[in-house]
Amino acid sequence: MSQPWEPGDTRGPLMGGRGGRGQRGLGPVIQTLNVPSGDSVPQLRHQSPGVTTAVPVPTPHGATAAPHPTATTDCVPTAPLTPSPVCCCVSPQALCSVSPQDLAVPNTGWSAAMCEQFQRLLRRAADGSWRRIPSYRRGLDYLPEVVQMAVGVVTRPGPRLFLRSVDEEGAGFEYAIFLHASGHRTQCLCQLGPYLEGHHGFAHGGAIATLIDSTVGTCALAVAKASVMTAKLSISYLAPVPVGAVVVADSRMERHEGRKIFLSCHVRDTKRDTLYAEATGEDMWCCGDGAGDTETIPQNCASG
Ligand SMILES: CCCCCCCCCCCC(=O)SCCNC(=O)CCNC(=O)[C@H](O)C(C)(C)COP(=O)(O)OP(=O)(O)OC[C@H]1O[C@@H](n2cnc3c(N)ncnc32)[C@H](O)[C@@H]1OP(=O)(O)O
């Protein structure tokens, strides 16, 4: 299996240094939840040291999306990007009104295999059967339409999402989650970077668990349209995942009872030759009494 970096490969995050996301320190305050629709890819950022440029890229429908503003290009801070000692929730970018940066798009840390699979999944999504879910650094901006239903309009920055805790492109989790039109299935295309290594050359089991939990959790969120918590996760690790490998975690709802949503997840290579892990999970939505079938799952726990 090909690795995204080789020693001396200047594409790699270990050579590229920090700040590949175009931001350092804390991210911008989220002013709006109007994010790009799930099936368009707003930008592919090309990078040279110290410069991040938004360039248009083709959408899956063949149109060319306008460059999406980034904090780096449109919101250049005038102070060093270090967290404020007074309030950890305010950054130099906080006054900017840019939209949050969608990170579920190609960057310089994505391997050719990752880009190829991403394009394949975008093509598959073009008929509306799937859609790409934008992904942001902060959890509350994640799956915004679902979160908004669960907790109302978000007016402050959410906590930083664990999977987006590594800024260096390609070093940690690089991923894009696709949601099936049924709302009961998610697929996460993921490249596991070198900071996720456990045994030499292989991804840490906790990283695999994180990938699975996030894919399953996103599926549960989409089903419940409300806040959910993972109550149980059982994983069988069947084969080690090489660092740098591109995998697909495929999760679906199996059934639900009351507040519990039962889900399954399989992690495979992109050719489906290797089953790396299989898992079952139970997520519980965190308000209301629950219900016996999908139709009666509370659509808005905040008001129901
Ligand atoms: C926002 C953007 C995000 C954006 C991110 C989106 C994707 C990322 C998803 C990440 C998900 C996570 O990592 S979540 C973080 C990891 N998970 C957690 O921290 C959960 C910790 N556990 C809890 O908070 C709690 O135990 C809950 C919520 C799971 C359940 O507590 P509860 O609501 O008080 O329920 P309780 O009354 O005790 O029990 C109700 C019924 O459920 C059963 N039950 C209770 N707990 C469990 C359990 N762990 N496993 C099985 N069954 C259980 C009880 O036996 C009982 O059955 P009966 O008597 O009725 O038959």
TrEMBL record:
SUPFAM superfamilies the UniProt entry points to: Thioesterase/thiol ester dehydrase-isomerase
One GO process term, biological-process aspect: fatty acid metabolic process
Stretches for region Disordered: 1-28
Main subcellular location: membrane
InterPro entries (UniProt xref): HotDog_dom_sf (IPR029069), THEM4/THEM5_acyl-CoA_thioest (IPR052365), Thioestr_dom (IPR006683)
Keyword Hydrolase on entry: yes
E.C. no: 3.1.2.2
GO molecular function: hydrolase activity
Any single Pfam family the record assigns to this protein: 4HBT
Catalytic activity: (9Z)-octadecenoyl-CoA + H2O = (9Z)-octadecenoate + CoA + H(+); dodecanoyl-CoA + H2O = dodecanoate + CoA + H(+); octanoyl-CoA + H2O = octanoate + CoA + H(+); tetradecanoyl-CoA + H2O = tetradecanoate + CoA + H(+)
Root EC class: hydrolase
Occurrences of domain Thioesterase (ranges): 200-273
Biased composition (Gly residues): 14-25
Topology relative to the membrane: Peripheral membrane protein
Localization terms from the record: Cell projection, Ruffle membrane; Cytoplasm; Mitochondrion inner membrane; Mitochondrion intermembrane space
Gene Ontology cellular-component terms listed: mitochondrial inner membrane; mitochondrial intermembrane space; ruffle membrane
Record keywords: Apoptosis, Cell membrane, Cell projection, Cytoplasm, Fatty acid metabolism, Hydrolase, Lipid metabolism, Membrane, Mitochondrion, Mitochondrion inner membrane, Transit peptide
Xref: PANTHER family: ACYL-COENZYME A THIOESTERASE THEM4
Recorded family membership: Belongs to the THEM4/THEM5 thioesterase family.
Protein name stated in the entry: Acyl-coenzyme A thioesterase THEM4
Species, as recorded: Gallus gallus (Chicken)
Gene: THEM4
